[in-house]
Design goal:
Helix content is about 60%, strand content about 0%. It has about 425 residues and is mostly helical. The protein has one domain (about 20-405).
Length: about 425
C-alpha cells in the first residue's frame, strides 16, 4: 500500500484487497515517539501522585488498547456479522476469550486476594427491567455509534474522527443514566444478583464446567448457522510475517482473545475488580456538570461507595486510568502500522454517532456495564446478568440492522465478497 492509499475506517471495511507484509504503510515514527513521551509523562505523574496500582493499570490499559487495535477485535462487528449474514467467526473468538477468562477468574475469585493484599470481587449484578432495557439500548447504540465501549476507545486512539463524537455523547448518555439510575433500579422490578458459582451451590469448579459447556454450545450453534447460510468470510486485514506481526499488522482473533482474557485477569488481580470502561464516562460527565453548578453529589448514583470517586481526582479512578491506557495503546498500534489518520465526518454518520453514543452511555448505566463490564466481565465472573446482557444486546443489533442504512452505514449482505 502506498502512502496515498485510502485506509478503511475501523469496523467499516468493505471488500478490501488482502494486504501482505511489504504492502503495509511505513511506521509513523514522529507519532510513535510522541505517544511514548505522553505515556512516559503520564506514568511518571501517576507514580508521583497516586498509588502504585494506578501506574500498573496504565500499562495494562496500554496493552489492552494495543491488542484491541492490532486484532481489530470487535464486539459490535461480531454481533452485526452474526445477525446480518450468520458469520459467527468473531463470536467464536468471544467464546474462546470467555473460556480462558473463566478458567483464570475461578481460582482468583475462589482464593479472594489480589496482588496488593486486598480482596477481589467479580461483576455480579441484578437481573431486572433495568438490565433488559439498558442492554437492548446498548445493542442498538453500538451499531449506530460505530463501535462498543472498547471499540470507541480504540477507534479514537486510531484516529477515526467520527468516534470522537460517539465518545462525547457516550459520556453525556452515561451521565444522564447515572442521574436516572435510582428510578430504574429501585422503582421497577428487579431480582437479586445470581452467580453461577455462589448462588447455585455449584461452587467455582461447577460454575466453570457449566460455563465451558455453554461456550461450546454457543460456538457449535454458530457453526450450524454458518453451514446453513454460507455467509461471506470476514474481510482480511493487513499483516506482517513472522515476529514482526507482534508490532505491525493484524493479529489472529484467537490470539487476541487469549491475550484479552489474560489482561482482564491481570486487571482483577491488580485492582480487585475486572476490566470496566463506562463508569469512568459517568464520572467524567458528572464532574463537568458539577463544575457548571449542578448538584451532582445529591444524585443517588453518587451516594455511598461512589461518593469518594466524585470527590477525588480522575487520576485516582482506576477505570479512568485504564481508559487512558487503552486510547494510548491503540494510538501506538495504529502509528506502528502507519494507519493513524483522521477520517471524514459526514452529517449522517455524525448524527448516528450522537444517537449511538447517547444510547450506549444511557444503556450501560442501566445495564450495570457495557460489552466489557457486563458482557465480558459479568460472564467471566459467573454472573447470570452477563449472559442476559449478551442476548438483549444481540436483540438490539437486529433492530439496528434496519436503522443503519438510514444513516448511510453499511450492513453485510449474503452476496458480499467479505463481511
Amino acid at each position: 500500500m502506498d502512502s496515498s492509499a485510502k485506509v478503511q475506517p475501523i469496523d467499516e471495511v468493505k471488500d478490501p484487497v488482502q494486504l501482505k507484509g511489504t504492502d503495509l504503510n511505513k511506521p509513523q515514527m514522529p507519532l510513535i515517539i510522541g505517544g511514548l513521551i505522553v505515556g512516559a509523562i503520564l506514568l511518571v505523574y501517576l507514580m508521583a501522585t497516586q498509588d502504585s496500582v494506578q501506574s500498573l493499570l496504565l500499562v495494562i490499559g496500554l496493552l489492552l488498547g494495543y491488542t484491541l487495535f492490532h486484532a481489530r477485535f470487535g464486539f459490535t462487528s461480531a454481533f452485526r456479522r452474526l445477525a446480518s449474514v450468520g458469520n459467527g467467526k468473531a463470536l467464536r473468538s468471544h467464546m474462546l476469550m470467555l473460556a480462558v477468562a473463566v478458567t483464570l477468574f475461578a481460582p482468583i475469585l475462589a482464593f479472594g486476594y489480589s496482588f496488593f493484599g486486598g480482596g477481589v470481587s467479580g461483576y455480579v449484578s441484578p437481573v431486572g427491567v433495568s438490565l433488559l432495557v439498558g442492554a437492548f439500548m446498548f445493542g442498538v447504540g453500538m451499531q449506530l455509534g460505530g463501535g462498543c465501549a472498547s471499540g470507541t476507545l480504540y477507534a479514537v486512539g486510531g484516529g477515526r474522527s467520527v468516534m470522537f463524537i460517539t465518545l462525547l455523547f457516550f459520556i453525556v448518555g452515561a451521565t444522564i443514566g447515572a442521574y436516572h439510575l435510582p428510578f430504574w433500579t429501585e422503582d421497577l422490578p428487579s431480582f437479586e444478583p445470581v452467580s453461577l458459582a455462589t448462588s447455585t451451590g455449584f461452587g467455582y469448579g461447577g460454575a466453570w464446567l457449566l460455563s465451558i459447556v455453554l461456550f461450546g454450545l454457543i460456538a457449535w450453534i454458530t457453526l450450524v448457522v454458518e453451514k446453513k447460510k454460507q455467509p461471506p468470510k470476514m474481510a482480511p486485514k493487513p499483516t506482517e510475517a513472522g515476529w514482526k506481526r507482534i508490532f505491525r499488522g493484524s493479529w489472529p482473533l484467537f490470539a487476541a482473545a487469549i491475550v484479552l482474557a489474560l489482561l482482564n485477569a491481570l486487571t482483577l488481580m491488580t485492582r480487585g475488580t475486572p476490566w470496566g470502561i463506562t463508569s469512568a464516562f459517568a464520572l467524567w460527565g458528572s464532574k463537568v456538570a458539577q463544575f457548571f453548578g449542578v448538584d451532582v453529589a445529591s444524585w443517588g448514583y453518587w451516594q455511598g461507595a461512589n461518593a469518594a470517586a466524585l470527590e477525588s481526582s480522575i487520576f485516582a479512578d482506576s477505570t479512568t486510568v485504564l481508559n487512558f491506557g487503552v486510547i494510548l495503546g491503540a494510538f501506538l498500534a495504529s502509528a506502528a502500522g502507519g494507519l493513524f489518520k483522521f477520517s471524514k465526518i459526514t452529517g449522517k454518520n455524525a448524527a448516528a454517532s450522537v444517537i449511538g453514543g447517547l444510547l450506549m452511555g444511557y444503556g450501560a448505566r442501566l445495564a450495570f456495564g457495557c460489552n466489557i463490564g457486563a458482557y465480558f466481565g459479568g460472564i467471566s465472573s459467573f454472573s447470570l446478568h452477563g449472559y442476559i446482557w449478551g442476548i438483549m444486546a444481540l436483540a438490539g443489533t437486529f433492530l439496528a440492522l434496519y436503522l443503519r442504512p438510514k444513516f448511510g452505514l453499511s450492513v453485510p449482505k449474503p452476496k458480499d465478497s467479505f463481511c
